[in-house]
Protein 1
Amino acid sequence: MTGSMRLGFHAPETEEELAALVFEAAETRTPLEIMGKGTKRELGHPVGAGAVVSSEGISGISLYEPTELVMVAKAGTALAEIEAKLAENEQELPFEPVDLAPILGYAPGDGTIGGVIATNISGSRRILKGAARDHVLGIRAVNGRGEVIKAGGRVMKNVTGYDIGRTLAGSWGTLAMMTEISLKVLPAQRETRTILCFGLTDQTAVEALCIAMGTPYEVSGALHIHADLAARLSDEEIAGAENPVTAVRVENFPSSARYRANSLRQALLAYSPALELDGERSEAFWNDIRTLKMFQDKPNPLWRVSTAPTQAAKLVGNLSRKIDARVVYDWSGGLIWIETPPLTDAGAVDIRRQLAELGGHATLIRADDETRAGIDVFQPLEPQHAILSAKLKHAFDPLGIFNPGRMYRDM
Amino acid sequence: MSPLILPDPDRGVTSRRNDIVKQLKRLVPEATLIADEEGCRTFESDALTAYRCLPLAVVLPSSTEEVSAILRFCHENHVKVVPRGAGTSLAGGALPLEDAVVLCLSRMNKVIEIDPSNRVARVEAGLTNIAITEAASKHGFFYAPDPSSQIACTVGGNIATNSGGAHCLKYGVTVNNLLGVRMVMMDGEVVEFGGKHLDAPGYDFLPLITGSEGQLGVVTEATVRLLAAPEGSKPILIGFDSTEAAASCVAAIIAAGIVPVAIEFMDRPAIHVCEHFVPAGYPLDAEAALIVEVEGSEDEIEYLLEKIEDIARDFLPTSLRRSQSPEETALIWKGRKAAFGAIGQISDYICMDGVIPLSQLPKALDEIGWICRKYRFDVANIFHAGDGNLHPLILYNANDSVQLERVELCGGEILKLCVELGGCLTGEHGVGIEKRELMYEQFTDEDIDQQVRIKEEFDPSWLLNPGKVFPIEGRDAQRMRSIELTDLGPEVEAGVDVAIEAELAEGHEVP
């Protein structure tokens, strides 16, 4: 039953306005598509809602205490604004959020912090510093009943009640609409150095990356990239190497970064480290990775696969016998970006067949509307998890107002 | 002592006690079942010993299958279940109920797998925290969360309360180091969440489970993240002539872009008690001391300690002492880790666990001192300064019922102060029964109702660890709320007045 609520685009400017709007939507059973600036709108199943609610009017940094390592920002605050403010104090978001905007046709930094947390997409440094969700200290949100709720707070440690804030991370706006987020931030790294090996097979590269992760040098990036994708990177020497590239990053104050890089070269001697990047060149390399530069120019389907590092090379090897996959391994193999040819199912069947055997899950990050409408964008859930997910959804949004079908068709 | 409201015992269950015990025995013959009063007595409280209750029975299973069978049976027979690890909770999270079976996981203490390539360990939930690091150390790895009870407390208990420890400023707390669990739902269903991969396929249930105090399910196995052990570590001990100077120094260190692996704070009473207990060379002339620890290679450590010393000098330290040897490092930490025990030697105490924003530290310590003077208690402060997690230890005489009642009021006032200053009621101990009634200090009706709705989806009959976390049993919260809110203020006032009068009557001085 759809009642009298005005359809179209809404951008409330306060939490109270948003709560009133959601309350009205709940009363009239009007489904709402939830977004920030809409830079990830083409991700997930298309939401069939007549009304769209954006958080972009609920914007601004509410509190920033650099000496407490805490920032509180309204959900609609642009990621670029947050990062600029942190940079003024030589601080940063430690989880190095992957900027999906450029591969989905938007400008870099265009997304909102609400979108970053709602999708929990963390970057290369996740292996050392934790995911986006790990840095959520508290939230304010509006649930599907139109009630304002808060959880957690603005302090580092908090076990006062259930951890609803981190639970909302990665829920893609299907449980509640966040209005404000408290985040743990950290001092920015003073220097970054990157050690590169060329020509390693996938299996050997993952082995090298896992060895690097086992050293005490606080490796903050552990990447392996196929030659055809490395050719699309900005660094001319790397792009021209015509070889797969394996990259290990260390960071810290300058003398420590130098020490760690030297120590790592020794630890990785058997893999013939051939090049070391420092300063801006090293930063530029990781900025390419963070903005998925290697996937920006071609519109091919793109998958994000999460698995145990030691299964990664086998998964890609098996998959490559079926389809022409171009691959980047991040998180020492735990995260795999896979570009597939424009097949009808974008390679879903083959990828998920491998995951059924080797463990893990896959999300289709980019594909045209038709493809996304035809397959499961998010990993289909085991029956037990489907039931529990429906229960969790019911606890927050009993009428199914928020983003119906975005993650799973019947939820 | 103040009466504790617990859910009304289900007489239908307590009257069938013998029958229930008999059926449990038949159901899980391999599990250890304790039903005699003397045996149950061991489990009548956790580390919050002020509250005790004999359970219906205690069962110690040895496998997930047994846990599942027990929960299914209890579910079908409407028997409540109180999960328990080592019983080190300081908040009464494992307090038994008269009509509940205590499900103690301590026999499920195996390391299932250490996987150095993927840097994870799979362990049973009854394993002690420290045993993970012990098993992983031969591969050069460790498990980061290190609560001070780590030689006794279990992984399952750590998950239930999202335990932290001294080193969580750098490494995070349990939720940041947990990758997967096997959990048994109240109806006996066994569910796996997460695994060796780093993020969730759909909704992330791990943060919801972590810190839920055993109310959503019983975790029987956990997959945790292992980290490469640092090359070395070294603390520096800095004395200050005021708590303000110590607090400002902490802020200045972080403002300089340094995040030490630990920053521990001790005030004058804590310094004296600890030094008396373990002569570690703590500065007895100081009003406050910081233990700041950094990690890395020798050069990295020297560089960071140099910078920290430079920063500290701006705050006119009364002493600056860098550890000169591993023995000295061990001694400095021994003093800190023995603190609660040392204070326990001279007095009974209750340990608060509120958290405040770091910038409020001087004000918080000042107010805590004032509150304790008002209630006429001595207090020692020793806590993790980097993350603002305060642990005021209020010293009192547990055998004096008047003091016992008063100390609870005093503690409650301190926690309310933490919330007022922008913090929270509990950083790592959990709400349990101790802080349930204070939840409305921090949350609105809507906030609590949202949490209660989650509980009801997981455990609609409220059989799993009921009576904890939420102000009285969640389902009755609505009914009781108005009473709680209107009565709490005057009650506190009256309680203090009564206590002071009692002291006066005994001829004691009251300031």
Protein 2
Amino acid sequence: MIAELGHFALILALILSLVQATVPMIGAHRNRLALMRVGSPAAQGQFLLIVLAYVCLTWAFIQSDFSVRLAAANSHSDTPLIYKITGVWGNHEGSLLLWAMALSGWTVAVTIFSRHLPEAFMARVVGVLGWISAGFISFTLFTSNPFERLLPAAAEGRDLNPLLQDPGMIIHPPLLYMGYVGFSVAFAFAIAALLTGRLDTAWARWSRPWTTMAWVFLTLGIMIGSGWAYYELGWGGWWFWDPVENASFMPWLLGTALIHSLAVTEKRGAFKSWTILLAISTFSLSLLGTFLVRSGVITSVHAFATDPARGLYILALFVFVIGVSLILFAWRAPKLSEGGSFQLISRESALLGNNVLFVAACAAVLLGTLYPLFLDALNLGKISVGPPYFEAVFVPLVAPIVVLMMIGPLVRWKGDDGARLGRILWLSAVASVFIGGTVAVLIDHVTWRTVLGLALSAWVLIGSAQLLRRRLGERRGTPVMNRLRGISAAWWGMWLAHLGIGIFTIGVTMVGSLEQDLDVKMHDGQVAELAGYTFVFRGAVERDGPNYDAWQGQLEVLRGERVVTTLTPEKRVYRAQQMPMTEASIDVGPLRDVYVSLGDQIEDGAWIVSLHYRPFVSWIWAGCVLMALGGIFAAADRRYRKLAARDAAVAQTMPAG
Amino acid sequence: MKRRSKRLLLLGGAGALLVGAVVLVLTAFQENLVFFHTPSEVVAGKAPQGRAFRIGGMVEEHSIRRAEDGLTVHFSITDMAQMIPVTYKGTLPDLFQEGKGAVVQGQLDEKGQFRASEVLAKHDENYMPVEAQYALDSAQMNKAAESVQQ
């Protein structure tokens, strides 16, 4: 019964989403307030219904109701409770339901937090979101119904893929989805702007916090996914340029460009068409990501669906969204006025450079990700594009962004004096190169990549200190605490996010330069050395987990005479699927991770053990957290609330168009 | 004129940047493409010499042998028509098993041995690597075509 209730709720949600997609749009077109106001309650009702459907599905998992096909395929009565709950989205159908829930959650948030916006504009935003929602709910219902029954019911479930039974997987998909779906809000704002023809600084101010929050979620989602790959796949890498990773990284790159382009649109009224185009592309890439990941085009742990009908449906949705919005763009964009002019040396130029480079980087990733798929689809041969391509391309495209990052905030809008900038920056430029070179020599790893990475990191750290000092210097005479408090949240956000890039760069450079690996056959009591650490193998013992059997190895890690820690890597076999899995054991530290995983057992009782030394990995995560924190600060800026209300009041008295 | 020339400079700069980026991307792309070949194609001499490529298929039954050091592994990849001996040193993926699909990346040495630098297996028990499946299917199709010709 519960499953049927959920199914029924989802059908009702589809009907409400269709109401939400059409009625407010018609109302906005005909200027009927009563019709426009249908949007918000429709969206809110839809959200409650989807939550109900989601709870019903979760219930089937918790109760181990294996007459529900999805629960039978992805759960097991021995699965720990937390993985029963997260197992709901550890599969194609459930994750789509999660997607729909995230989307209607964002819509409800928009109807609440942006309710002071002009009604005709809001009606269109909600309407566009309604279309997307209808697309995804119907996709779920017609091709991937999560409530499908299994007759006769299975006696026991097949359990969740062991790779997904991991704490990282508890939060990775929801965060990532909140990011993907969040960009649909930016998209809806862009489409509404095209429809109403009003695209001004007020519009940018309305759109910015939503875009920034979506970006925050995406940043954290990617970070958790990367962290999962790092400790769960057991080979100590944190980024593989796998198509699935690229699928989430491309919207991130364009989303970052969008955030910066929106800044220009808000502050200077310029880059309007470009901002709109970026908003459309970012959301399109989110859809493309879903298509790539979910359609089974790419084999990966994410490719749950190998049903061609599903891939076709998402592809059709994708083509429809891009087609309609680009036609609308081509029709309306020429009417947008272009904003104020600017000189060669100006903040606008710096941000333009940022945008060009981010788009180029995204295009490079897109090429490497899609080209093999195209060749394959056209039967022209099978190829793969590996990490060397992405690394060769990415570093030169991103390095200038990092350089610009510390110049942009110093340059004035409209135009600035090049000599003034030179005076401010030359010393830190020289110092950065010097520090980069010196540290590379000190760590005894002088390659152009290490020197470049370290110099860029130094550039960001010095630049950030310089920016803060100049900002504080603006109000000399007042106490430092007051001066710190006087700085806007938006500025802190920018500063933190940029500093995060610096920390991240340190992590990436150090791991890339100094990581060490050793695969070794170890008997009980045998000793191995790596990167100044001594590893003593104390054998492996059998251990029973809740839904798996494991061999647990014991390794003492010593630094000189001092015992650092004892690591316990495992080789597990999950009972339901008889699937073997490596569970790495990591000693995490601020300056280095010591990472051990257990390979195969050999005839004579010895084990293959993989030892990894990973310096500064924590800095990669810390950098991402700083970026996300910066985004939260930026989105929380007071002016969005204060000015947005004023803008909306002005807009109400002014006819649209 | 001054403003116009400045704009030209800006456009020219952006254009040059873009051209540079495109050249960079395409060169890197050319250099780092990894082609895929089935064991039959490799035996027919279609695989490149001195360049990395991928082979996919099944790990032949009873072909896995470990060397003395315990780390070096020998096995064969087959598409049921031809087989290629492979040598790999390192930890194997969890789902690497005899009679199951796998994809290896590496180079051919002078003796016709494939020296793998990377071994990929499936992510879970339900799915076969696409490339491995493809190798098996195309070998089977060739066989069918041959039997028709005879």
Protein 3
Amino acid sequence: MSATAAPVTAAPQLRDGDVLLRVVDLVVEYPAGRGVSVHAVSGISIDVREGETLGLVGESGCGKSTTGKAIMQMPRPTSGSVMFDGAELTALKGEPLRRIRPRLQMIFQDPISSLNPRRKVRDIVAEPLEIWQVGTPGERAAKVAEVMEAVGLDPAVAGDRLPHQFSGGQCQRISIARALVLDPRLLICDEPVSALDVSVQAQILNLLEDMKRRYRLTMVFIAHDLAVVKNVSDRVAVMYLGKLCEVADPDVLYEAPAHHYTSALLASVPVADPTVRPGLVPDALRGEPPSPLAPPSGCRFRTRCPRAEGRCADEEPLMREIGPAHFVACHFPVEATDFRPAAAASTVTGG
Amino acid sequence: MTDLEAVETEPGRPTHDGPVGGRTDGPLLVVDDLHVSFPTDRGLVRAVDGVSFTLEQGRTLGVVGESGSGKTVLSRAVMGLLPEGTPQSGSVRFEGRDLTTMSREDKGKVWGAQIAMVFQDPMTSLNPVVKIGRQLTEGLRHHLHVDKKEAAVTAVALLRSVGIPEPERRLHQYPFELSGGMRQRVTIAIAIACGPKLLLADEPTTALDVTVQAQILNLLQDKQRERFMAMILVTHDLGVVAGRTDHIAVMYAGKIVETAPTTELFSRVRMPYTEALLKSIPKTSDPSHTRLSAIAGRPPDLADLPAGCRFAPRCPYAQERCRVEEPPLTPDAGGLHAWACWYPVGTPEGSDALARNASAARQSA
């Protein structure tokens, strides 16, 4: 799924007609006392095409969850624009914003704490319909049953139980059912499988793929696990310290990363194959990310980057297109021949 | 990455050329038919149900399992950290002495000095109101009886050896002043301070980011090799143990279901659970939107275990026998690779069983 003739701009933009969500120059800052602020998200621009899954990947503290929440306007971003389905969300408030909310839904990392422990599963899934008084009571009950069935829960058995009677994976199914019951257009998934065991994680990832097809969803999938993100995404955006580093088709990004951070991140992933010797940590990733209270000047990755020069400190690299729909914010991108993934032996994929 | 100079002056390091106290002829650790259970309202939860394994000096064992497989209870039992009065049977012999029957006082001499542990969450395993220096030197002063000054010198050397910049300054800092990765380095420094012969690492990198995870795993491996320590790495992630252990034990519902030398396990999987676990992990080398082979259902309730093989209800190979008769953990001819399965993967019986189930599924569909 490579993009069609994307214009060369500072941001990975697409043709207007396709775009369901357009984020422009999104900034989120939190006051940290003494006049200092946490620069959680510092000017992110990205488009999400109708029907696509955009994967947002990065380490803790990079601002990926904050971005997801800012799109939902909870809390509102400090500045920037969030255009969803033709409406400028940052300009809406009160009732007009509330009216748009059913079309934007979110699921969270911890499925157990995101469900009310004292309510029956059927009531939890039905609540959005009740709030919006969609259809007749009979129609609502039918919709709840249909969605529960779709996520793999038996409405007759599960409906009358309480969340604590379910495992983490089952609770995530309930959360997904609740998010889908209003037929949203955009589903934001914030680390939806990080709290689950591997065997259950695969079930939920497969379920999300099925639901995307069945309900024609557009998704923003936020996670720290590179393999998980690749599995579900049509495009992947890599974040570091509040900024986007690189945006590309997953098969391109994982095969030939252009940003030094992406390549270091990929080299750090443990591979379940003993013939692949865990490599030495790339020089780039000695040390840890700097504090978002005082991010470095210029390129934010320069303090850990093996390729950094004076220019990286003085001049912030802008997003530019270096291949078809492959965007990178780096003055000195990784040459294709430089990158040898840890799993090089097994990464022979077409394209 | 190895800082040779720091290593040479590093304290608490057993010398390689001679035996360092205790017996060195037999295996370092022998766990024999260990059972641990917890009485609950729902009945007896059998968290560890007949686990046996042996660990030689200087070797690394990976214990892999999902949540509820009993891997953490197993590591607590090996360490002797279970609450007083927890019903358990079997033995955990460390250098020939049974830890399960040892007095609290004797265990105090073993903890830290002979066996040390690194936990998942460095913030909760460090004392938040005590400076790092004191937490580091506590063990040194208690077990090795060094004076304050010498302990401080040792502490600086230890912090340097685990890759902490400006170690002198860190001694006077509190845990909250350090990042998660740095805190985990501190807990590793504390664990290796007295030169233990066995290091238990229970999900040491689960709370950390990928890039930091790689650093910490490399650090653990470096220290293990330099000091010829034995190590048990407990994790849910087969990727973490794949390149970093000599031997792997896969746990399911309180039992070891397959155990083998690491390369053997990955190249000749026998237990259907291990196979299913490997298949369900998304890989960065697969194209995006690859359909994952998920394991249906979920692990059994440890208070209400199914008859026969515990994996049978979720197993694509399962036959009638599996639901009735529990398969024992049986080694192959070489004796190093053992599995608990009636219809193992990659054998004629296994292939037949799989084909039978597939055709039965086709007929009922």
Protein 4
Amino acid sequence: MGLEIFNTFILLMLVVVALVSLRVKDLLTASVVFGVYSFLMCLLWAEMGAVDVAFTEATVGAGISTVVMIATIFNLKRKSSD
Amino acid sequence: MFEGGGIINELFIERLNYLIYVVLLLIGLHAMIAKNNLIKKLIGMSIFQTAIILFYVSVGVKEGATIPIYLPEHDPHGSHASHSDGNETEQSNHGPVVLDAELVKGYSNPLPHVLMLTAIVVGVATLGLALALCLRIYQGYGTIEEDEILAKIEKQEMRSNPSDVLKSADSSKQATSRSAKSVSKPKVSSPRSSKRSKASPKTKAKATSPTTKAKTSGTKPVSPKRKAAASKSTTTGSKKSPAKPKTAASKSTTKAKPKPRAKPKAKPTARAKAKSTAKKATASKPKPRTPKK
Amino acid sequence: MKKLSLIPVLLVGILLIYASKDFPEWGDPSSPASKSPLSSHFIANTGVDTEVPNMVTAVLGDYRGFDTMFETVVVFIAGMAVLAILKNSDNKKSGKREFEVDAEPDIIVTNTVRLLVPVIQIFAFYVLAHGHVSPGGGFQGGVLMGASFILVALSWDLDTALARFPLGRCTIVAGAGIILYGGIGLLSMFLGGEFLDYAELANVFPVSREMARYYAILGVEIGVGLTVTAIMFSLYANLSTEGRLKGGL
């Protein structure tokens, strides 16, 4: 039962975080929030028993892709129109 | 079969994973379609991707199953360690055995995990590729907002055949109405692009094709300076070969940038011409002139 | 435009939610995906066939080795494409970035990273080598290894990281990973099996056929790890400097 509550909580948080990362007008914030999204996804997969996928997502999604995205935004304009 | 509380129970309690996967997929899809910023589109794409991965992993889950790594008693190398259990008699003799169907149910499905594991890594590689393309687009157009890029492409196409006056006049009229429509709809971009055309009048004047100049001079008073600039642009337009308009445009821009006298000239026309040239003006203007604020 | 785009989105959503009533029950052990003979075979026979306790690694490296090989090739091609796109791109506007950072490397940060990087790299090797018995494998180990170089680049500057792992060597290492992967496959082909049929390696190495697959999976994972390490680092190095490989974040 506790696991289900955890699952539900993370699923709802995922939607919230996804919306936030798309609503924010600052691209740097958006990419950091997207890193949070990836990490929540990683927790969810670890909870569902897909440990390898969770590990990959933790290293790739929350780690490298956030860094790469920030490195790109560093060379672009930080503000977004939407 | 969905009546009363059935559908609520079905969707929100038992299949919350599937529901959230659909919701995330829609969020990502909507971002990919509707967002204006290319980086936002990429974030939407990644959300779309993780939503599909979530679906695959959700399908592979089994109730009460453990992760797809052998428990010590089934482990081909760990069987010696857990020898004392005694319930796996064959194992102590022959090493690993094929698990029977009951034991198979104890492990969650490894196949979706494998598929998704590679998908994640390929996903980050393609994300990097897309970001590189974004950088390149930014170098070429000075912006990563989709509507501004489209406007610049449109303007470049118009500039590529300056000899065909009548036809391009027609197309510019069409472009005017279209761009007016598309500019006025998003609330944010419309004042900004007009402001931007005000901020960079010199480049705009240079970039204006002769046909638009003729059109606007008929409707609006044009300052002599501006006319001169426009005529200059006419000469450059006639001089350069239509085959490579982009290099010529960028060259003229870089030349025009440092000159400060451009400011007062476009003031009177900027507002009126915002419709027709707002999109064009941005084309030849590289990134540093960020007029917002 | 924004309102208009809601129409296809909602259409897709209605279709998917309508379809979701046909999805299997949550966690149903007899759902089609879990009931399929393929995944049952993987779960039941991995220990016998390859002696690898982690089924995901075994399926990744052995049963679906062809798939993984070309996934690695995709990663490689993506990295090379980034290089090609940004190689001689317009670099004139180098000084006009919105944020220019030209601070000295911070002493606390650099010394912390100095302690941290070896740990990360050893952990990367551990993850790579222990992919057989625990979560991990070539992809994760490679990403961690690449992240250690990125960490160096972040805390000092890119030149320091490039001095340790030059971009030319990146390309070579990335190619070497794929060649290692394909070479193991070809070797097993020349030994009489099929492409990527590792069991034939037992003909030349003094191990049983199962353990030949076990070690060949390790070799394949090393190949994947090499490619992923190099590509992840070169992705960062190129994207943070627009292909100039100077300055950067």
